[in-house]
Amino acid sequence: MAESAVSLVIDKLAPLLAQGVQLLKGLYNEVADIKDDLEAIRAFLKDANSKAEREGVSESVKLWVNQAREVAYQIEDVIDEYNMLHVAQHRDRRVFAGFLTKVSSLVRKLPLRHKIASEIHDVRKTLHRIKDRSEGFRFASSEQGGSSNIVLHDPQSGSLFIEDSELVGIESTKDELISLLVSGECRRTVISVVGMGGVGKTTLAKKVYDSYVVKQHFQCHAWITVSQSYDRVELLRSTLKKLYEAKKEPFPEAFVTMDALSLIDELRKYLQQERYLVVFDDVWEIRFWGDVEHALVDNNKGSKILATTRNEDVANFCRRSSLVHVYQMKSLPQREAWELFCKKAFKFDFEGNCPKDLEELSQDIVRRCGGLPLAIVAVGGLLATKERVVPEWQKLVNSLDSTMASDPHVENVTKILSLSFHDLPYDLKACFLYFGMLPEDFSIKRTRIIRLWVAQGFVQEKRGLTLEEAAEECLNGLIRRSLVQVDEASMKGIPTTCRVHDLVRDVILSRSEELSFGHVSWNSSALEGIARHMSISKGGSDHPKGSTRSQTRSVMVFCGAKLQKQIIDAIFEKCMLLTTLDFEKCPIDEIPKELGNLLHLKYLSLRDTLVSNLPKSIGKLQNLEFLDLSDSLVERLPVEVNRFPKLRYLLGDPKRGCGFVVRGSLGQLELLQTLYVINAGYHHERELLNEIGMLKRLRKLGIMNLKTEYGRDLCVALENMPHLRSLWVASQGSGVAILDLQAMSSAPLYLQSLILWGKLERLPEWISRLHNLAKLRLTFTMLMDAACMGLFDVLLLNAIELASAAAVDALISFSIDEYLLAVTHHISAL
């Protein structure tokens, strides 16, 4: 982890030095020396970290690594304070016209400038001492602190789910559980899968839940992750919401504020006439059954409840009011453990078989895993990245020392996961540790975690890739190593949501505390320490005291209850160096004007909050790159938003589904890649579309309430967007008006997703030239049979979603008979 901290600081120093002597005001040479020393230290950190991980190694090595990390943090703090001062001075020069006012502003900042200069002197001396001490340890040098074994553009990276061919030892159990679910008593029945962490309970339950036989048998179903610290009301509401989602029904807003008794009543009414299946994954406490049993009505229709738990008492407690079947999951026997290991370690070579020269070492590794699938897939995923040579594998066997044999279970897994963490390239280590900031059993969207990583600077630019694409490679690397699990994936196998196993999270939290990387509870010591990342849950029962400025760089808030005002104030008043602030789904309704103090802020998410207005001080956030206002109450953006020179993502589809209104000139946002969803009905449309046409880097665009007469202007704007990947257009009046999109002569060639919402007199002929199109959705188009035939010139189409009754039958039969395309169709809003 010291490698990550040092590398991040080197990356920050480079542009600072590039600005020249004048900017650094006499400190240029010292800052250049600091950068040189850091690069020298980074060259030794790979070997130093390796030695520090070994048991029995002198504490002095560990101390040296810790000191290298801490001085990197100190340098980062000084750099960010200097940058903040520079931004403030630059703003003063623009704002203040009077000479005396300028002088007064500069004089006030002189003590801070002196403090920063003094800190740079002190840091340089400390760094020299650390560098000199490294010579006594005789560390091996490397050009890069990270491993070179990570594979970019892996051709198999799309297949990140656990395929049936990879499952070992659970096929008969899966069939047995399916049989229990679809047959047997008409009374409500509870089936409990019991076993220790990492034995494969969730994997088994998910395969059973997703099976075609089960989905066809039950009229409604829901998958709920419970976790160790659940809230009863949120559990009931989540269950009800999942049932609605499974049937693609809108979730009533009234349910959001209901208490437990009201939610139980609604669940009983919803399930009364249904044969239902509800899966509760990762149940810890006996009280759980008392919290849900009255909501899950026994309707004599053969309804089933499937629960996974480590605690057999949970399973037995259900017997008081339901039929119960308990299935005990055991560790894998040696033969099946070996089979699973080979499928992970040699998935893409040797036809899934272990080479003879590695067999003895591999058998030893499998034996040390104690038959635990989580440990086996973790170590198998690690070895899949290694060269197939004996010395490389012998190193791993040496790391798995004899202490593992003393406990074949949790300690065993922890040791293996720690080894997997140590083996990660330095850029992946920070990405991996960031999962620890998420609540237990939290499933996060791929797009969200990728943007957070980018905002934090965890991801380095790679030739030919955007930062987001490089971050996606990092996520795939963690998934391939079995450190991150895919929760949901698209039809093409691309992960859409992911999480970490709770045992993996335990390792992450332990490392995070040890490395001062992050804290997951809110208290004064956490805020005023040197931890870089903060996660707040349950509204925060404590709040920080004192006036010390926090060194925290990111704050994520996860709470269903209202956040205490003292904590909100502390975030904006103390965390001046924040780069990331994520309030997604937090029930806050106001952002204070002190938002403008966060001059380093790159990422701000108010998604799914109750915030309706943004303070004008947001205009001070000149480093902002990501602004997510989706599902909030913000409908009109302040004109200041148009002045963000670095803004790349602007997301804002309000809860009312009306798109957001932008005032002023959008064309200044030259780096904008995502603009979604903008309401064209409240603008001078032609002027707005001209401005949008200036955004030549756009990759995703959503625009609604488009009048028919301005369709041609939109076509002209789209012709200027060569990088566009996703387009969503809705005509005026929620799709009632005609969409006139015929005038495009050269459509964006890389368009992958196209959603048109409104009447089409005929299908735009340019659609047939979109050879990269993977998703097409037509809603309220009212096209007739003959007009649809042009669709099938798009030979690479993977999925067609139709929401118009007209011509559906002809379209589906034509696609199957003529092109044998895999077509999915969702008929809605008929």
Automatic annotation (TrEMBL):
Domain Disease resistance protein winged helix intervals: 438-508
Keywords, in A-Z order: Nucleotide-binding, Plant defense, Repeat
Domain Disease resistance N-terminal as annotated: residue spans: 5-91
CDD domains: RX-CC_like (cd14798)
UniProt domain NB-ARC: residue ranges: 171-347
Highest taxon listed in the record's lineage: Eukaryota
Organism classification: Eukaryota, Viridiplantae, Streptophyta, Embryophyta, Tracheophyta
Name assigned to this protein: Disease resistance protein RPM1-like
Classification via Pfam families: LRR_14, NB-ARC, Rx_N, WHD_DRP
GO biological-process terms attached to the record: defense response to other organism
Occurrences of domain Disease resistance R13L4/SHOC-2-like LRR (ranges): 551-783
A single GO molecular function term of this UniProt record: ADP binding
UniProt gene name: LOC105107974
Organism: Populus euphratica (Euphrates poplar)
Stored InterPro entries: Apaf_helical, Disease_R_plants, LRR_dom_sf, LRR_R13L4/SHOC2-like, NB-ARC, P-loop_NTPase, RX-like_CC, Rx_N
